[in-house]
C-alpha cells in the first residue's frame, strides 16, 4: 500500500513538472515571435544555422552536467528549433500577405476526418488560423473544383511519397487548372494495420485501404498470404468501413492518429516498406502569394518543349548558369498529343529574385508553353547538424 502511495506522489510530481514544461515552451515560443518581428524590420533570414549549431553544442554540454544523454538533448531541441522556425515563417508570411489573415479558413482535402490529407491540413493550419472549416472530397479533381469555384479557400493535395513516388493524378490535374501553389507540408506517414475489435493477425482475411497505402506497404502484405484487398476512395473511407463492419476478420491500413477518430486500434505498427515514410502535400488557392524575403522559397514551373532534340537540356542549362537549384523534375504525357510531354520543375528560388526572372525569360523562347504554378515558402526544416565530437 505504501508503495502505491509513493508511486502516486511521484506521478503527481511528474504531472506538475509537465505542466511547468508546457508553460516554459509557450513562453519560449512567444519570445521567438519577437525575434521574427525584429528580423522583419532588418530583413534578416529566419534561420542562422551557425547560431543554431552553437546553441545545440552549448545545451549538450549543459545537459551532460545534469546527466542527460547528448542525443536526447539534441532531439528535443531540434524539435523546438523546427517549431520556432515554422512559427517565424508563418508570422512573416502574414506580414507579406495581410489580406490572408483570417480567424477561420476553409480547406478541401481527400477523404474525411482521419485521412492523411485531413491530418496534413490540420497540421499546416495549426499555425495560421484559429478555426479550420473542413471539406472532405472524393477525388483530386473535386478538390480543385471546390477551390476554383470559390466554395473553399484552399485545397490540400498529396504530390509525392518517399516510398511510392510521385502521385501522377495530381500532376495530370495541375495541367488543367488556374490555381496557384501557395504552400507545402511534409507529413510523416506511419502506416498501421487497424481493427475495430480485438483480433489477431492470422484472423484477418480482408484489408481495406486507399491505393497509395497498399503500394507503400507491399512488403508486409506479401508476407500475409491469402488476404483480399479492397480499394477505397480514401483512407478515411476505409476506416469508416471497418468501423461499421465491427468484424474481427477485416482491417484497414491507416495512421494510428487517424484511426483513433474512428475508435480503431493498431494491431500492427510500422508496416510501411520504408521506416522513414513521408508524403509531401501542396496547398493550392485561387490567387498566388508573396513570399517574404527572409524565408527560403520554392517556385513551381510547368513547361512543354515539343519534340525538338535537346530542348529540355537547354532549359536546364539556363537554370544551372543562373545558379538556381532544381529540386524536382517530373514528366507527364500531354493528353490528346501522343508522345509529347509536359515537364514540372521545382526550383529553390523566390520568383521575385532577379536570377529566376532572367532564367524564365531565357527559357521561354525554348518552349511551346511555360507557366509559373506558384511560389511558396519551403516548409521542410532540415535539422542543424552537430559535430560528432560534441555528442560523444
Please tell me about this protein's structure.
Residues 300-377 form the ACT domain. Pathway: Metabolic intermediate biosynthesis; prephenate biosynthesis; prephenate from chorismate: step 1/1; Amino-acid biosynthesis; L-phenylalanine biosynthesis; phenylpyruvate from prephenate: step 1/1. Catalyzes the Claisen rearrangement of chorismate to prephenate and the decarboxylation/dehydration of prephenate to phenylpyruvate. Keywords: Amino-acid biosynthesis, Aromatic amino acid biosynthesis, Cytoplasm, Isomerase, Lyase, Multifunctional enzyme, Phenylalanine biosynthesis. This protein is of the alpha/beta class and 392 residues long. It has 4 domains: 2-92, Up-down Bundle (Chorismate Mutase Domain, subunit A), CATH 1.20.59.10; 98-189 and 279-285, D-Maltodextrin-Binding Protein, domain 2 (3-Layer(aba) Sandwich), CATH 3.40.190; 191-268, D-Maltodextrin-Binding Protein, domain 2 (3-Layer(aba) Sandwich); 297-377, 2-Layer Sandwich (Alpha-Beta Plaits), CATH 3.30.70. Helices cover 42% and strands 24% of the residues. The protein is built from 13 helices and 15 strands. It has helices at residues 2-42, 49-65, 70-96, 116-125, 140-148, 168-174, 211-216, 218-222, 235-245, 256-260, 311-321, 354-363, 388-391; strands at 104-110, 131-137, 154-161, 165-166, 180-188, 191-195, 206-209, 228-231, 250-255, 265-268, 278-285, 297-304, 326-333, 341-347, 369-377. The strands form 3 sheets. Strands 1, 2, 3, 4, 5 and 11 form a 6-stranded mixed β-sheet that branches. The longest helix is centred in the N-terminal third of the chain and has 41 residues, at 2-42.
